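The protein record quoted in full:
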Amino acid sequence: MRLRSLSAFGAFAVLAALMLSVSASGASRAEKDLYIVRMLEKPVIAYEGGTAGIPATKPRRGKRIDDEDPDVLRYEAYLKAKHDALAERVGADTVYDYSFAVNGFAAELTTGQAEALRRDAAVAAVEKERMLQVDTSNTPSFMGLTGATGAWSKVGGIDKAGEDVVIGIVDTGITVHHPSFQDQAIKKNGFKGEDRGVFKPYKKLRLWDKERKDRCQVGEGWQRSDCNRKLVGAQYFYEGFGLENIAERDFVSPRDWNGHGSHTASTAAGNSGIRATGDAAALGTISGMAPRARIAAYKVCWEEEVGDGGCSSIDSVAAIDKAVEDGVDVINFSISGTRT
């Protein structure tokens, strides 16, 4: 069972569920609120041609998007120009541009501006920001991965489970230096880490490219060197939640304070043979479902001084859009619920 490349349909499914999610924040900024404006034209990952002078950018089945391809750059610029023109028409400033997984932008709008955009023929939908919540170890045997006939045996054993796959985790960030996310054998501090071979540079993946330093953002308690060949990317998004609303105890960086993001990342792709600690110590050693996969973390969920904190929908869409641009194979978004 190989994890398969994220298709345009998969990206749209994730985004559709996200945009319909419950738990609206109800918070407003002065007389304006944050909105997501979705345009009718296709995003980069789904564009099949039709605009004069710009060939199709939709990747072939099983292929990643190439965000440095001249046609991709041309179509991305075309979409952003449309966003700017539309926002300028109603007198709004954009907060985020979305071009890869969804075509649109986020902006602070008055009720009148939002209604004007809804009436525009180029607009598919205008949706007010929603604040989502995080809802929540040893499961390989329960999932049928282990044993002579288990799923791991179908891909060459645990040594190869998830090899060359990148999983994008959109959540509360990730714990720095945890054994589950290291790229080499860990034998100190009582941990027995990934002893089936260190992670080598993944040459096919532009995420692990020292010239693309934006893939690993610096911030509080986080250095660029904290990324490695296992944790190939770490970024954070807070424009929707608001920098001023982040609790002092949290880290304005990809670093996880809550723990939920690290939990979901280790469940999906944590290294095998890691000794459990804390309440889970009785489980012995633990493993992710695809222990040879690599992780790109996108922090969109934040702590508040008072209250539950949350994950702004406009930040989450920005992170998903960026993950698609980065070329991840799978996106995990284990946040809140949906409505139909």
Observations:
- The first strand starts at residue 33 and ends at 39.
- The longest helix spans residues 70-90.
- The helical segments are 8-19, 70-90, 111-118, 260-269, 313-326.
